[in-house]
Amino acid sequence: MDSSSTTTVFPDLPPEIVIQIFEATACASHQGAHTISLLCSWARNIALPYLFETIVYRSKPSFSVTLSSGDKRSHQSRPSGPLRWGHLVRNLWTESTGMSQPSGEEEVFRSCPNVQNIALMSSSLRTLLRAIQARSRTTVSQRDELGPTSEHAFLHRLRSITLVTHTFRYDWHFLVGTRLQDGSQLLHNITHLRILDMKISAFCPHNLLPNLTHLALPYLDLGNNFEQDVLRLPAGVLEHDTLRMIVLTVAEEKWLTNPWYQIARYPGKSSSSPRDMFRTLVRWAQQRDDRIYVFLSPRRMVDPSQDWVNAARSGRSLWEAAAQARDCDSHGAGLPEEYPKYMGR
After folding, report:
1. So what's the pLDDT on residue 209?
2. What average pLDDT does range 250-261 have in this prediction?
3. Taking phi first (over 0 means left), then psi (-120 to 50 degrees means alpha), and beta for anything else, what does residue 344 get?
4. Are the C-beta atoms of residues 178 and 129 closer than 8 Å to each other?
5. In what order do the strands lie in the sheet with 214-218?
6. Pair 338, 277: CB distance under 8 Å
7. For the packed helices 125-137 and 102-111, what is the interaxial angle rounded to 10 degrees?
8. pTM of the full predicted structure?
9. Secondary structure of residue 61 in the 3-state scheme
10. Is the pLDDT of residue 77 over 60?
11. Contact 206, 161 (CB under 8 A)
12. Handedness of CA 87, 88, 93, 99 (dihedral sign)
């Protein structure tokens, strides 16, 4: 080898091209954003908006907390201070379990003023209210300490709520009439609502959300049985004036393994494949109301939070995926032709 030759670590490209490459890489995937953020300080500034766009926060009693850009590892019991990059967060999933301190979760809420899409437990709605009240009392200098924020009001961008747990009417009544700093009402701003669990309570706060356009509910939790021609929905859902789309989600694991939901598989009933039965369900639901979609979510072996994170990072919401499935007639794609043998009659 010629001793005078040198190895070029990075192509000699104009800075504008390098920046475009870094931005495209950071935008393409979360791992790409993480890699770019480790290169150097100016590259990190490019990657940060993509790296912290979606945050998962989990608080458990006494031993662990997750506060990161989607990673499930942390070594701190609670945030030591306001999130430095909270103003970059657009999608926030938060869970507080056991006897964990609500102050940590409130601090996360307060540090993320520009959230557009939030997933939380119904018990955290009161914590969210406290964060709104606390931010409305802060002075300009105190807001500066919380980090860079939009010139607009706290949580003025919030449009979508996902409830991780079942909910009751009393979880919501204290939010009625709550106003943000720009004068708008919090609940009037919400256009998208998803509830992941309705096994204990079938309450849906749609009547408190006058501008709701998109709703997603867990079909199997509502005790539905389409073979008996019965569609059970919370009272008043179909009469909601602004609703344009209702997605009935079906957990693939339950659909495949729990015979309680598969009346056709009982003794004396003819059994069809899970794929065919699912497609029958889709057609049946659409006949009841054209606004009703049925969609497999979460898929088997996929954690609900990871399913939510994947949708947030891909920019393809549940409602968009359900609409695409109808347009392409791809309902039931990936379902097997036969039920698992261990669930046979």
Report:
1. 98
2. 80
3. beta
4. yes
5. 64-68, 54-60, 91-96, 117-120, 160-163, 192-195, 214-218, 245-250, 292-296
6. no
7. 60
8. 0.82
9. coil
10. no
11. no
12. negative
Distance, in Å, from the CA atom of 296 to the CA atom of 318, rounded to the nearest integer, reads 10
DSSP β-bridge partners for residue 92: 55, 118
Q: Write out the two tokens for 204.
A: 């849906």
Counting every residue, how long is the chain? 345
Find where tokens 């807001």 sit. Answer: 143
Q: Report which of residues 203 and 1 the model is more confident about.
A: 203
On the CB side of 66, CA atoms within 13 Å amount to 17
Which segments within the chain are labelled E, that is strand? Answer: 54-60, 64-68, 91-96, 117-120, 160-163, 192-195, 214-218, 245-250, 292-296
Cis peptide bond prior to 298, omega within 30° of 0: yes
| Burial (CB count <10 Å: 0-12, 13-18, 19+), residue 53 | buried
Token pair, residue 176, equals: 């009625």
- pLDDT, one tens digit per residue, over 53-63 is 898 998 765 44
d(C-alpha 242, C-alpha 214), whole Å: 9
Q: How far apart are CA 79 and CA 179, in angstroms?
A: 27
Residue 64 CB-half CA count within 13 A: 8
Nearest Cα residue to 92 out of 75, 63, 69, 126? 69
